[in-house]
């Protein structure tokens, strides 16, 4: 099925034929820049690229040019010949070599650079970089992130199973979510991952999971700090109207419950996650100040908590229009002193800022057609591979490779 996603690559011969019909009326054609792609984050599990035949998961990763370690650079670049390159390799050539299309193309060096940017920012701070698996759960990517020393942030039993399959260190994994199922909590308890407590019933389930598994569970309290992340309401999760986390006036109840279950629960820290696409790092600082006050209070009550988890949410460059966005260093610099002053281990949960700029969804034009009033460029990609733009108009950067886009003029 072809979607309305408009991606144009080097034209096939049939497209060339079709386009030739329009060459006579060039005034109705707009010159378009180059290729496509990826700013939303859904994984494609089955990626078929010949050059990746050695990889069991068939993820295509470009590996050249990894000597450029400037953090957060975009690895997809249009060069002077008008083509898009990934780490020095022409995407067009990769497209020609694949067995099946469309496909997602990832840059392994870019993933590495993104992690390195966080690591550099976190130097001198005891920390865990917990990759939020929901951002992209491709196993090959998970394995690469694990090999770089990342932990994993999970929001379902299946994400937990994936993390275990990718051999993440369980002590660097955090199980989040406000609807965690008992059976998944049992698995989490058995595996020894950290679990965030989100509500009263969640706490009851964690206690039950501990009893079933016979394992004490390391828990963090997910506190809703009521800080406005100034983002789209759909991705704001740390303000008081959100369904996530516990309200500060209930904190004492949770502390008493933890105290009442010493065999089942060990309180190790506090967590918050404000939302996604945050572009002002002061917001993280505002939340961290509040969270550290909670930790002070929790410690005053005799708990030996040592983890502050400030969640994920660092904004990314969706529009590629030259916006200056905060880097991991900017983010960590706003909380560094606070964390060090309390001798805390810092957990961060980046998702899209680790993976979004590493990937492009490569489509090929199947043909062009008209319904008399509107012209369509039909491609091989569809909402089966990338649902969000069609589903709710999510923004997707499309870059056209080569030639002309026919305007919506009847012909
Ligand atoms: C608890 C939690 N942590 C981390 C993330 C990752 O956020 P982002 O991809 O914006 O970094 C999310 C995303 O929804 C989340 O809910």
From TrEMBL:
**Domain Orn/DAP/Arg decarboxylase 2 C-terminal residue range list:** 104-396
Q: What GO molecular-function term can you cite, just one?
A: diaminopimelate decarboxylase activity
Q: Which InterPro entries match?
A: Ala_racemase/Decarboxylase_C, DAP_deCOOHase_LysA, De-COase2_C, De-COase2_CS, De-COase2_N, De-COase2_pyr-phos_BS, Orn/DAP/Arg_de-COase, PLP-binding_barrel
> Example GO biological process term?
lysine biosynthetic process via diaminopimelate
Query: What top-level branch of life does the organism fall under?
Result: Eukaryota
Q: What family is it from?
A: Belongs to the Orn/Lys/Arg decarboxylase class-II family.
The beginning of the lineage is:
Eukaryota, Viridiplantae, Streptophyta, Embryophyta, Tracheophyta
What is the protein's given name? Diaminopimelate decarboxylase
């Amino acid at each position: 099925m072809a979607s309305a996603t408009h991606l144009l690559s080097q034209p096939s011969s049939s497209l060339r034929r079709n386009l030739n019909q329009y060459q006579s009326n060039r005034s109705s054609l707009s010159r378009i820049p180059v290729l496509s792609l990826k700013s939303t984050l859904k994984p494609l599990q089955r990626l078929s690229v010949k050059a990746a035949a050695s990889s069991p998961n068939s993820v295509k990763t470009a590996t050249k040019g990894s000597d450029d370690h400037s953090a957060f650079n975009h690895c997809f670049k249009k060069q002077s010949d008008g083509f898009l390159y990934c780490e020095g390799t022409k995407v067009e050539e990769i497209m020609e070599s694949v067995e099946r299309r469309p496909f997602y193309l990832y840059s392994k060096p870019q993933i590495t650079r993104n992690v390195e940017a966080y690591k550099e920012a976190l130097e001198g701070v005891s920390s865990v970089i917990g990759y939020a698996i929901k951002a992209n759960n491709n196993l090959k990517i998970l394995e690469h992130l694990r090999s770089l020393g990342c932990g994993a942030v999970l929001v379902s039993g299946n994400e937990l199973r994936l993390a275990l399959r990718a051999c993440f260190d369980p002590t660097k994994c955090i199980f989040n979510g406000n609807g965690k199922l008992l059976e998944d909590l049992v698995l989490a308890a058995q595996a020894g991952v950290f679990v965030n407590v989100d509500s009263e019933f969640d706490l009851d389930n964690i206690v039950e999971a501990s009893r079933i598994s016979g394992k004490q569970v390391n828990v963090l309290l997910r506190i809703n700090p009521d800080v406005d992340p100034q983002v789209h309401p759909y991705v704001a999760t740390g303000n008081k109207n959100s369904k996530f986390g516990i309200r500060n006036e209930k904190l004492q109840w949770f502390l008493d419950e933890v105290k009442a279950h010493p065999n089942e629960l060990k309180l190790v820290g506090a967590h918050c996650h404000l939302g996604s696409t945050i572009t002002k790092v002061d917001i993280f600082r505002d939340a961290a100040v509040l969270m550290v006050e909670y930790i002070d209070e929790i410690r005053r009550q005799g708990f030996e908590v040592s983890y502050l988890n400030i969640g994920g949410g660092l904004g990314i460059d969706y529009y590629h229009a030259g916006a200056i966005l905060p880097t991991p260093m900017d983010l960590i610099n706003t909380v560094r002193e606070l964390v060090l002053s309390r001798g805390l281990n810092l957990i961060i949960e980046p998702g899209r800022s680790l993976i979004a700029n590493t990937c492009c969804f490569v489509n090929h034009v199947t043909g062009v057609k008209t319904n008399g009033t509107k012209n369509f460029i039909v491609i091989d990609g569809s909402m089966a591979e990338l649902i969000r733009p069609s589903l709710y108009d999510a923004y997707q950067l499309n870059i056209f490779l080569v030639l002309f886009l026919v305007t919506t003029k009847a012909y």
